[in-house]
Amino acid sequence: MITVHHLNNSRSQRILWMLEELEVPYEIKRYERDPKTMLAPEGLKKVHPLGKSPVITDGDLTIAESGAIVEYLASTYAPESMLPEHGAQQWIDYTYWLHYAEGSLMPPLVMRLVFEKVKTSPMPFFIRPVAKGIADKTNSIFIGPQIRTHFDFVENHLASNTWFLGDQLSAADFQMSFPLEASVARGLVERKSRPHIVDYVARMHERPAYQRALDKGGKYDFA
Description:
Strand content: 5-15%
Number of strands: 4
């Protein structure tokens, strides 16, 4: 049986959703973030040296990284329903969105989060205005425009597609789910400016398999 090493409020939630959609039996081993650092516990390093989540084990295999896990599950358990025909344009599109999620969309979102944390981190009072000024300037001049460009790009794509590969849910949607639902939950994406992203996230959350994954995964701030 597959074991999902599940960290609360993390990318591993999308792996639970995928497994529920595939109706593949699995079990969950839970890990909680450190309440002060928000980092994963040291125990995860016993599963994988980087101590990150998600990680799954399937028999003798240990697989880390969301994209690698999504590809493995799709190709092993549901190649006909979750993967397009190899070599076709949809295969190229699938590969693109699978890598785009973490390779292009997530980096500026993570950078923004880090700089927002800098503004509220403990520091001498006389340093705080300087740190806040640097963080605000970086977000407004460099990070913010990048994020808006990405969201406009995704919004335009979803304006003519129910799911990322068209009318049918695919493995690409699991990979794209986390950055989009986190952005909606944090108020970075709003209906008035990007209604198709908001509708996509709502459509995803309404699926029975997603709801089952929430029930099994526990509290999740982004849904």
